[in-house]
Specification:
396 residues; FAD/NAD(P)-binding domain; 2 domains; 17 strands; 34% helix
Amino acid sequence: MTRQTQTHAHPHTHSTSTRPRIAIVGAGPGGLICARVLQRHGIAATVHELDASPSARDQGGSLDMHPETGQLALREAGLLAEFVDLARPEGRQMRLVGRDGRVLFDAAPPETDPGDGNPEIDRGQLRELLVRSLAPGTVQWGRKLTRAEPLGDGVHRLHFADATTVDADLVVGADGAWSAVRPLVSDARPVYTGVTFVETGLDDADVRHPGLAALTGDGTMMALDDNRGFVAQRNSGGHIRVYVGMRTAEDWHRRAGIDLADESAVRDALLAGFNGWSPDLLGYITATDSGYTNRPLYALPVPHSWPHTPGVTLLGDAAHLMSPFSGMGANLAMLDGADLARALIEHPTVDQAISSYEKAALPRSAEAAEGAAEGIAGAFAPDSAAQALAHMTGHH
């Protein structure tokens, strides 16, 4: 089966006489927002997603949506009211705890205007909202892109693992850190930041782990010192997602002779690394309900840009993968998606739209990525406790 991306085409506001075949690779927030804004203006796009289904894997933690980026994109997509219904304003609470377990800083959000500021939403809920907003069949699930082949005149042929191909006038690489589209425009590869998170979690935390739930608060709790730390984050449904962070070798577990599938060995190694920290904080390691997942953090070189290439562009992590210490990754991806869609609506050719979009997106992503690099360097430093306290008190 060869399925062309114009299958769901409708009359639209594009001023060219032909309908561009738009293939978006990746159903993350940026790719889905792009497809949604295009569809609102009668322009068809197909999203090709590696996941077998919307619920094939855990989508990750909670996101704070910023008014001038993520929320702006949701407004452009006509989904802001639905987002506000799902969002958790109380999730904006930020708490800093010392390695001795004492609360050093606590900023609870004001109770006025729940839509104000940066309310939180689970990644899974956000994806569900975006997928539900699209015309049936827009997202093609279980589509692993193996290579993209230039055919000339900006047209590319996408080759998928199921032996099907699709030709497109515009390929949008919204396929994340290890993008299969990126090599069409850039040789850049993600680089290890020097920091690894080991993710774990607490289920039904208020009932099963009341002490840790109280220490976490309603939003995000951080305890950072001496090149390591804990980040605990409230999600919906009583779940607390925990990241045990450390500045360490990318293959730290191999060097220590640890099998990542051996939970007790991982737990013992983590506890040894936090020797002398408060027993309350060590509970985040020992009370796990979900085992341990090793997550080395990567980032693209800063700044990352590419020469204008007809028929292809990038958005989100494919364009500007950065550490989570920017707080901007998903927000920028969504703004990218909305801006690219808007450019395609407003410009007479795909080529002009790509140029306009990249002119706006590349400088702002470079600025955010620079901030993210500084953020992770400060959070995992010898004096990170003092840096984190100065940063939080300065921002509030």
